[in-house]
Design goal:
Number of domains: 1
Number of helices: 9
CATH architecture: 2-Layer Sandwich
Radius of gyration: 18 Å
CATH class: Alpha Beta
Number of strands: 5
Shape: globular
Helix content: 40-55%
Structural class: alpha/beta
Oligomer: single chain
Distance between the termini: 6 Å
Largest sheet: 5 strands, mixed
Strand content: 15-25%
Order of helices and strands: EEEHHHEHEHHHHH
CATH superfamily: Ribonuclease H-like superfamily/Ribonuclease H
Length: about 210
């Protein structure tokens, strides 16, 4: 019997768009999914010593006073790295979250985890839901009537919504027919790299060569 795969869906709130431009994380959340069920949650503000601009405060609700009282970013990253150890990763617009994940982990002195490969629900949604008006997380949540998880632009709410979108994507792909092929994280990463409009070919190819689910 194939072991059930656990994935970690993460989301950061930050002071800017890129760690390469000096932005730092202010909050992180991780949601663990196993066999379509949420089996764990992690959330924490994190103090990286960075200043939060007024427009970021307005967007996220995270203030400089909140960050001043938060645990050090180094401590939080070590905790969340341990929480997600051995899990492949998922995020919406994963290139953004991956860049902060790598930067904050390096700043915390954490050893890289080879399991931490990223799948992107935004890239997947572009292939599975080409009819969507856009592929922002909030738009997709409304389109598919995903549960309300509270304030957008807070890490746990967005991670929960991304986790629900990941599960929705997998259900809809399964309904389209995979020939019994398991929709593993690795297979989903293959789909996000495939040509747009080629989903039916991807499903047929996977049915021929992928390991079968039990």
């Amino acid at each position: 019997m194939t072991a059930m795969e656990t994935v970690a869906v993460i989301d950061f709130e930050t002071t800017g768009i890129s760690p390469g431009q000096g932005a730092r994380a202010t909050e992180i959340a991780a949601v663990l999914l196993r066999d379509g069920e949420i089996v764990g949650r992690f959330q924490s503000l994190m103090n990286a010593g960075a200043w939060i601009a007024p427009f970021i405060h307005s967007l996220t609700g995270i203030s400089n006073a909140m960050i001043a009282a938060a645990p050090p970013a180094r401590t939080v990253m070590r905790e969340v790295m341990a929480f997600t150890r051995g899990c492949p990763m998922v995020a919406h617009n994963a290139s953004f979250d991956r860049s902060f994940w790598l930067a904050e982990a390096a700043a915390a002195g954490c050893e890289p985890d080879p399991a931490h490969r990223f799948a992107c629900t935004m890239l997947l949604a572009r292939r599975v839901y080409p009819q969507a008006p856009n592929h922002k997380l909030g738009t997709l949540a409304a389109l598919h009537h995903l549960p309300d998880n509270g304030s957008a632009h807070r890490a746990l709410a967005d991670a929960m919504t991304a986790a629900q979108l990941w599960m929705k994507l997998r259900r809809d792909l399964q309904a389209r027919g995979t020939g019994g092929a398991a929709l593993t994280h690795e297979r989903m990463c293959e789909l996000q790299r495939s040509a747009r409009g080629g989903i039916d070919r991807w499903l047929r190819q996977g049915a021929r060569r992928a390991p079968k689910s039990d």
